[in-house]
Each structure stands twice: as C-alpha cells, then as structure tokens.
Predict the 3D structure of the following.
Amino acid sequence: MSDKSFAANGERVLADLNALRAMGAYRTGVHRPTFSEPHMRSLAWLVERFPEAGLTGSIDGIGNVLGTSPKPGPKLLAGSHLESQNFAGWLDGPLGVIYALEAARVINSDPFAGGTVEVAAWCDEEGHFGHFLGSRSYAGLVSEADIDAARDRTSGRTMREALRDVGLAGRARVTAGPGRYVGYLEAHIEQGDTLETGGLAIGIVTSIVGIWQYRISFAGEQNHAGTTRMVARRDAGLALARFCVSIDDRFPALSGPRTVWTTGHITLDPGAPSIIPGRAEMLFQIRDDDPAVIDRLETLLRAMAEEATAEGPCSVTMERIRTGTPARMDRKFQDAIEAVSTVLADGRFIRMPSGAGHDAQVLATIMPAGMLLCLRSEALVITGTKTPAMPTSSWVRRFLSKLAGACWEDRLLPPGNRLTRDLLWSMAFT
Ligand SMILES: [Zn+2]
C-alpha cells in the first residue's frame, strides 16, 4: 500500500473551502450569521460530506454538527465553526472544519491508521446568540433556560424562534460522552499579526485568554449647555473621558506582556449637543491568560473608581458583567505541533497565547485540547495531535505527515491568490 494513496488532497481542501465561501458570499468574504439560510446550507453540506470520511452525523438541537465513526480505537475530535460574523472573512471557522474533514477522509480510510478522526462544527462560536453556545452545549454547560433567554444580537429574534424557523426545535442536543476522545484539535487563521510581522508560519497556542468585562457608570448632573458656568458643572461625559485616559496611564505598570484592554462602547445620557450629560456609561474589557494579572487590574480599576468619586465632581461605580477563565492548551498537543513545524515550517513557528476566543477553550474543560494558528495570507496548515493513551507516536506522525503533506507542501492557495488587506481586516473581528 503506497503512502501516496492516503495523502491528503490539497486541491480537494481548497475546493471545499471555496464551496463554503460561495454560501453567503459577500464582497471578498461572507455573510453567514447563525441560523441564516447560508449557514444552514453549510451545515447540511458538511453532513453530506461525512460518508466520504467514514462518518455519519446530523445537525443537533442547537445547530452543532458532529460526525462520528463506528470504528473502535482511539479517536481524535477536530473542528471549528461554519457561521460567520456579519460581513466577515471566509476562512474564519471553515479552515478548521475543512482541515478536520480532510484529516478524517485520509486517516479513516487508512487500514493502518491507529485511530479515527471525528469532525465537529460548533454552532454560534461567533456569538450571535450568546457565548460559545454550541460547544458549551456539547460540554453540558447550556441549560434549556439559557436557550430560552438567548436572542440574536442583530435582529432580536429569540433562539427558540430561530430554532423553530430552521426546523431544529425539539431535536435532541448531543453532549460529550465520557472518555470518547484522546483530545480535541482546532486549526484557525491567526487574527492578529504576530505571524505575519515575525515572518512565521505557525502559531502553537499555549492558552486562550479569558475575557473580563465591566460596566463603569458615571453620575453627574444634567444641565443646560449654554447657561451652566464651567466651574459649576458636573459633566458625567467629561468624567468618563478622563477615566479612560487614566486607565491608559496606569494600567501598563500592572499589566502582563500581552494584556489588552478596550473601551468598546460609550453612552452619554441624554446624549444631546446642548445638554451636559448627567449620566455616562462605558463597557470596558480586559483580556489576559493570567488570572493574577486580571486580579491586579480589577483591583486598580476599583481603586480608580473610588478615587474619582472622592475627587468629584461625579461619582463612579463599577460592575463586573462577564468573567472568563483562561484555557490552557494541552502540553502534548503543543509538543506534537512543534515537532512537525520544526520539519515542515523550517522552524518558523512560535508558541503564543490566543487573544481571540475559540471553541477549543470550551472543549479544554472536558478533554485535552490543542490549537494551531495558521498564517492567514498563506492559508496553510499542519495539523496534529499526540495521544497520551498510546505508547508510541506513530499514529501521530502519520496523521501529521499526511495532512501536512497536502496542506503545507502543496499550499492551499496559489501564490498569486493572496488575500487582500480588506479581507484580513474583516477577519480580525471575532
Ligand atoms: Zn473563528
């Protein structure tokens, strides 16, 4: 049996990615929000591909697609998501699903492979209805009440209505069985610029950051913008602006090397040009992979709110509205990806935390998980895993070499087909 017959097929991978790109195509990217017609079409399309990989599956009651194999032996779960942000990039999500599908086609048809690859497309990773509803449902972390409460942030349509509209109401939700998998692997385009600016090809994810979010409110006094003298004002909008600047002045001394913070939303009340705002509010977010750093910054933020209130003229209150536990990626997965990157990417790899959230952080709560980031403009991949349960790494090496053979050496995209700057930007919003 020649090894060639079980090599991954780069052209097939590219054709699959382009097939998905055509579903909800918008300019250079796609518009395929959760439970839209093109999203449902993409899920059905994936289910139709499963027999080619020796898998069977269907769309479950929350929109997850999971292809499983009846074969005994070790199993690796791999995948990503198929919906997109509104008007976004075409590789964000599909890349990881199609790499997983190709790995399953190759490995599952190889009589000498020591394991099986199963494929998942997690619903709503992009958070149209909530945070990681699909993968969290699979992990047993979503209640029926959570689904009752979920609502499309763009249209306001409830999740119940959406499930009914697409014919999924009443369908069972699939949840993880204990011990089925040796682990979960996800490939994803990098949404930052670490690889691009460093001349690197592969990012080996060490951890996925947690996201903490705060509502910070400023109370002053609403008044007439023409008749109220400057010294008499209690301008909540001005207090908010000062607070934002103060954060930028004081956070760096206590932050970690990759801490990021963002004021993503500001409201002024009443928000009219001739009225001094009596109230103001900002939504503020901190991301880091070290909870100790977040602790320090949160303490500082509270102290700053108290200081600002004491100094006046406005009072400042702060409320934490979201916390996220950073997820550590499995060390063995990291080592396996590094081993193959050393050979096939000429050592152009880096171990790095992911500043964007991914389903792998949810899967990491129930099984070993690994993640690799691919340079967007080359859309290449090396995918692999290491199975702690197996005495040798032969299966791992086969897995890696077959997939990498097609996806790295053949290059998925012809050299002239580099993605445009606009597309790269649109991919950055996850
Ligand atoms: Zn994604």
